[in-house]
Structures are given as structure tokens and as C-alpha cells.
Write a structure and sequence with these properties.
- The protein is α/β, with parallel strands linked by helices.
- It has a single domain, classed as TIM Barrel, CATH 3.20.20.
- It is built from 19 helices and 18 strands.
- Strands 1, 2, 3, 4, 5, 15, 16, 17 and 18 form a nine-stranded mixed β-sheet that branches. The protein has a five-stranded parallel β-sheet with strand order 9-8-7-6-14.
- This is Guanine deaminase.
- It comes from Actinoalloteichus caeruleus DSM 43889.
- Keywords: Hydrolase.
Length: 507
């Protein structure tokens, strides 16, 4: 049975109308949009949704998420990234999480995402100490059950973590250095074999709704042969290559210390930069970096809330757009932003750059931030032919908002309301691939109460583990604090490696 949404206000995000609301009807046949037009009449076998006083939009795309952090939501504050990671991604003292717990934490993220109008997530799943096949399968199983669209990674670090930071030999106790270096990281061939099997088993699952992606953690955290091998594998499978690049000033300093150049230039030199590449964060970029990204047709996932909470910096939004870089938006982790709600992220992206850019003509428009939160995210995930806009032939991933609510009263420019007024409370229905997965605030495929009850059963043990991890990894705090201090003190104009006078473009 098909569905007809009649006479609704619609934001298509296509190339013709973009974020400008139009009044029209949408016909959905099976999983796809089959017709859009003002004069569509119901067919005998169709479910008809009255679109009067309703706004229909593409589902939001979360272009950078870490579901691992769902267990750490609301736990940490006032820590820069390098110190925060000591506790949210412990270096020492952690064992493999059971697959059942991985499934539950993923469902928690899927539930909150769908209820907030997010129909697609790019979930960069990092398991500590390493990811196994059962843990990865648990993530895919959870997303298949919930009905959300997802790119899911095998995230990998194949260097000892202490060797991914500058100055570590100078500031860290030798016994801690030895202990970390005694942990054997995955070899390149192991990760590539793991990813090949993951592609064969999971890529294009659930009718193409679920896809695997490769995710080397960052150029400073992985060897060059792994960076290149993963890029080749992504191209072979037409899959996303997702990598953290220049999130913090520490990482900018690291690139120069390790490679004598920027991390973006290093990726270009070794052949690990292309259309399939999405850089998570992309804050501490130079003008040359931005030109390289534009020429490579790469994407940047901008994570404004997480970057603010961790004090990482402000990405150069306008400069990236001007250079032709595709921009997505992401929540980042459920601990570094404390929520996967993308409406919060869209609003933050719209606001943040108004204070970092003095020329108000260069401030992000509502249309630009909505595009980044929908079609830009779909493009970065390499699924822009399926989702991200409401167009004939695309899958019906959409959100229906009730306009008779406080966020849309008085009713002015609906796109402006959506970005700056709506918080998800007006959402009436969410569809993914033509199926209603949220109706009147409740998921249709998942027993939310049962999931929360099962998760509560685990939480006492999780709390014990977290307290133990925090106690063990607190030993690194003095050294990591000193590394952060040294990098923060590095000038952002002339740098000490080459005399280059090009400043990093933050904001």
C-alpha cells in the first residue's frame, strides 16, 4: 500500500526550491517517492495523510556520530579533547564490551536520533581495545531493528596511543610509556582483512539502508600503509572513508611534528584523499588545506556543539563552502555533545559563525545550514542518490512536523522556524524508506521501555567499570595537560617548523 501526503508545506532541499517552502503533495510507492505535485489525487489503495498545517522535510543526516559514547552521556565537562579521551576512550584497564551491551547502547542512540527527526547516521564505532566481529554485528543488528539508515565503521588506531601525540617522550613517565607500548595494536593486514569481511557481510544490508565504511582514526594515529590501504578499499566498495583530521590545535602541531607538513597535505601526498573522504571536524586548517580539500571534492563534517564543549575551536564554515568543499553536520559523540539531536546542531551551526565572522554577508544562511544537515550529510556518506532531499526516485526519508505548535507560532518563514525555533517537539511522524518508524513520539519497531529496562540492568556494572577506568587512566592527566599547554602556546601565525606565515584558519 502506498502513501499520499496531500497539500502540505514542503521543504524539498532539491536544486530547484532548496529550503524555500512550497505547498504540494508527495506520493510514496513502496520505499520511494514516486510523484511530487500540487494536484495529486488519492488512489483506492493509498493511505492518505492530510498535509494541511503540516511541514514535510527530508530527514536530518548526522554526518559524524560515536554511539560508543552513549554510556558516557552526561559524565564529563570542562576537559579538552586529549584529556577527555583518557576517560571516554580509556588507554589502559578496559576489556571488550559484551555484544549485548553494544546492541543496547546502539539502540539507545537510534531511538533518540529517530525521535528527533534524524533518519540517517554516520556512526564511527570505536571499540576499546579493538573491535571484534560480534560487536560490529551488534551495531548493524540494532540499526536494522530500529529502522534507521546508517553508515557504520570499523574504527581503527594502529599505533600505540602515546605515539600519536607530540612531546610525549619529554613529559610522560617512562613506566606508563612502556605499559602502553606493550599493548599490541591491530596490524594493517588485520584491519584490512576485517574490513573486507565486514563489507561482504554487512555492506548494503536491509535493502541498502545499512552500509559499512572504513574509518582510520586519524593520520597521526595510523600508519601510512593502513591509511592508503583503507582508501583503496573504500574506493573499491564505493564506501565512505571517514577520518578525524585537525580537530584540535594539538593535532595541528602533531602534523608538523610528525610529517613536517599539515595532515591534509600528508593525506594528499600519500593518495588517501578523494571524493569518498569525509574529514571529521576540519578546524585547524590552512588556506592551502582548504584548497586541497576543494580540489579533491572531499567533505568535512562540522560538529559545532562538540567542538564548543571540548574547546576545540571553530571550523572555517564560509571558507570551506567558498572552496567547493561539501559540508555535512554532525553531533559527534553522545558524551562530547551529550545528545545526538541534530536540530540542536543545525541551530548551533547557524548561530556560531555569526560571532566568528565580522562580515554579516558571510554568515551562514538558513538554506546553507539546512543543506549541510540534510543533502550535505548524504553526500558525505555517499548516499545522496538515495536520501537527503525530497525528489522523485529517492527513498522516502522524511519528517512531518505539526505546525499548530508553539515553535511554529506565529507562522512566518518555516525554514527559519525549523532552524531556530523547533526542538523536535513538533515532530508527528518520521519515515525511513517509506516506512513510518516514529508516530506520535513513539518508535514503531522498537519496544523502548523494554530496551531501557534491559539497559538499566547493565548500568551498575557499567558504573563500576567506568570508575575503574577513570582511576587507572588518571595517571596520564599531568602529562596530557602539559602536552595540551605546549600546543596551545604554539603561535598560530608564523610557525616554528618552516617559517610559513600562513595562519591556521579557525572560525
Amino acid at each position: 500500500m502506498g502513501t499520499l501526503i496531500r497539500h502540505a508545506s514542503v521543504i524539498t532541499m532539491d536544486e530547484v526550491t532548496g529550503a524555500r517552502p512550497i505547498t504540494t503533495s508527495i506520493r510514496i510507492s513502496d520505499d520511494r517517492i514516486s510523484e511530487i505535485g500540487p494536484d495529486l489525487e488519492p488512489r483506492p489503495d493509498e493511505r492518505v495523510i492530510d498535509g494541511r498545517d503540516r511541514l514535510v522535510t527530508p530527514g536530518l543526516v548526522n554526518g559524524h556520530l560515536h554511539s560508543w559514547e552513549a554510556l558516557f552521556k552526561g559524565r564529563y565537562d570542562n576537559l579538552p579533547l586529549e584529556l577527555w579521551m583518557l576517560f571516554s576512550y580509556p588507554i589502559l584497564g578496559i576489556g571488550e564490551l559484551p555484544a549485548d551491551l553494544v546492541r543496547l547502547r546502539t539502540l539507545l542512540v537510534a531511538m533518540e536520533s529517530l525521535r528527533a527527526g534524524v533518519t540517517c547516521v554516520v556512526d564511527d564505532v570505536l571499540e576499546t581495545p579493538t573491535q571484534n566481529v560480534d560487536q560490529l554485528a551488534a551495531v548493524f543488528d540494532a540499526y536494522e531493528l530500529a529502522g534507521i539508515r546508517a553508515n557504520v565503521s570499523g574504527h581503527v588506531i594502529n599505533k600505540p596511543f602515546v605515539d600519536t601525540l607530540p612531546f610525549v617522550e619529554e613529559v610522560l613517565r617512562p613506566d606508563l610509556l612502556d605499559e602502553v607500548r606493550a599493548i599490541t595494536p591491530p596490524r594493517t593486514d588485520e584491519y584490512l582483512d576485517f574490513s573486507r569481511r565486514a563489507f561482504e557481510r554487512h555492506h548494503e544490508r536491509a535493502g541498502g539502508r545499512l552500509r559499512y565504511m572504513v574509518a582510520p582514526s586519524g593520520p597521526q594515529r595510523c600508519t601510512d600503509d593502513l591509511l592508503v590501504g583503507a582508501a583503496e578499499l573504500a574506493r573499491a566498495w564505493n564506501a565512505e572513508y571517514h577520518i578525524h583530521v585537525l580537530e584540535t590545535k594539538v593535532q595541528a602541531v602533531t602534523g608538523r611534528e610528525f610529517h613536517g607538513t599539515t595532515l591534509v597535505e600528508h593525506l594528499r601526498r600519500i593518495g588517501a584523499l578523494g571524493r569518498e573522504t569525509t574529514l571529521a571536524h576540519g578546524i585547524w586548517l590552512t588556506r592551502s588545506d582548504i584548497e586541497i580539500l576543494g580540489a579533491a571534492n572531499a567533505s568535512v563534517s562540522h560538529n559545532p556543539i562538540s567542538n564548543l564543549k571540548l574547546g576545540s575551536g571553530i571550523a572555517p564554515f564560509r571558507d570551506l563552502l567558498d572552496a567547493g568543499v561539501n559540508l555535512a553536520l554532525g553531533s559527534d559523540g553522545a558524551s562530547s555533545s551529550d545528545s545526538p539531536r541534530m536540530l540542536d546542531v543545525v541551530k548551533a551551526a547557524g548561530l556560531l559563525h555569526k560571532v566568528s565572522e565580522p562580515d554579516h554577508h558571510r554568515w551562514p544562511s538558513v538554506a546553507e545550514v539546512l543543506r549541510a544537515g540534510t543533502l550535505g550529510g548524504a553526500r558525505s556518506a555517499l548516499v545522496e542518490d538515495r536520501t537527503g532531499s525530497l525528489e522523485v526516485g529517492k527513498q522516502a526519508d522524511l519528517v512531518i512536523y505539526d505546525l499548530n505548535t508553539l515553535p511554529f507560532t506565529p507562522r512566518n518563514d518555516l525554514a527559519v522556524h525549523l532552524v531556530y525555533s523547533e526542538n523536535g517537539s513538533s515532530i508527528e511522524q518520521v519515515m525511513v524508506a517509506g516506512e513510518t518508524v516514529v508516530e506520535n513520539g513513539r518508535l514503531t519497531r522498537v519496544d523502548e521501555d523494554a530496551v531501557l529496562a534491559e539497559l538499566r540492568h547493565w548500568l551498575p556494572r557499567v558504573r563500576e567499570w567506568q570508575e575503574e577506568w577513570e582511576s587507572v587512566n588518571a595517571a596520564f592527566v599531568p602529562a596530557f595537560t602539559e602536552i595540551h599547554r605546549r600546543c596551545a602556546a604554539t603561535p598560530t601565525g608564523v610557525n616554528r617548523w618552516s617559517g610559513d606565515e600562513e595562519a591556521w584558519l579557525v572560525g
